[in-house]
Amino acid sequence: MQLRIGQGFDAHKFIKGKPFILGGVRLPYEYGLDGHSDADVLTHAIIDSLLGALSLGNIGTWFPDNDPKFKNADSMELLKKVLLHKTFKAWKILNIDSTIIAQKPKLSPYIEQIHSNLAELFSLQKNCISVKPKTTEGMGFCGREEGIAVLVNTLIIKN
Ligand code: CDP
Ligand code: ZN
Q1: 50 closest CA partner among 79, 21, 10
Q2: Cα–Cα dist 155/159, whole Å
Q3: What is the crossing angle of helices 108-122 and 75-83, to 10°?
Q4: CB atoms within 10 A of CB 30
Q5: Which of 108, 145, 148, 151 is the best mutation target for the ligand 1 pocket, counting ligand atoms within 8 Å of the beta carbon and taking the most?
Q6: How many Å apart are CA 41 and CA 49, to the nearest integer?
Q7: Cβ neighbours, 10 Å, residue 89
Q8: How far is the CA of 7 from the centre of ligand 1 (A)?
Q9: Whose CA is nearest to atom 22 of ligand 1?
Q10: By C-alpha distance, which of 101, 113, 148 is closest to 25?
Q11: What does residue 155 show for φ and ψ, rounded to 5 degrees?
Q12: Which site from 18, 37, 105, 120 is most exposed, i.e. has the minimal number of CB atoms within 10 Å?
């Protein structure tokens, strides 16, 4: 039995005039997240955790942020591309655990929707995916509501 663990981190700052997308779900908020793609910070951290588990680089090496092809890219589509990579065919995801560090907005009303969306995308039971929002009690860049950071751990097993 071969197991691999992956870790992912990402952070994006808030900006006016962009939709706020988290885990592929568009959420109501007065700011979106700044970035070349749709800046879905949760999906980016998930991608990095998967790539990290198999030592396949990171999201920036796969989808360079200076490549016009990925301007406003749907990050869920980028995630699907990663999962279709030949190396991943030999592996199955056991679980994904994520922490979203956001002072604002209050995410608890939307966690169920994000959770369901990810479970569907990965074809995983919902108890194999966890999405946990957390504030920093006002400290640091998240606390000042400048942006959002996400941490992800992923465990995969060889088929
Ligand atoms: O109580 P503790 O310091 O551990 O957590 P907190 O950061 O104060 O967050 C309290 C609760 O608010 C958490 O359990 C989250 O479920 C929720 N929360 C949220 O809905 N949206 C956020 N952006 C941050 C936290
Ligand atoms: Zn990102």
Answers
A1: 79
A2: 13
A3: 30
A4: 9
A5: 108
A6: 12
A7: 10
A8: 22
A9: 106
A10: 113
A11: -115, 130
A12: 120
CB 45 within 8 A of CB 9: yes
User: Cα Rg for the chain, rounded, in angstroms?
Assistant: 15
| Average pLDDT, consecutive stretches of 10 residues, N- to C-terminus, the chain (159 residues) | 97 98 98 96 98 97 88 93 94 98 98 98 97 98 98 98
Q: What domains appear along the chain, each with residue ranges and CATH number?
A: 3-158 (3.30.1330.50)
Beta bridge partners of 91: 158
CA distance 113 to 62: 28
* Residue at token pair 């929707």: 113
CB-defined site of ligand 1, < 6 Å: 102, 106-108, 133-135
Q: Whose CA is nearest to atom 11 of ligand 1?
A: 134
How many other C-beta atoms are found inside a 10 Å radius of the C-beta of residue 112?
11
Res 67: pLDDT: 84
- pLDDT score for 69: 85
Give the residue among 155, 146, 150 at the shortest CA–CA distance from 59. Answer: 150
Q: How far is the CA of 133 from the centre of ligand 1 (A)?
A: 6
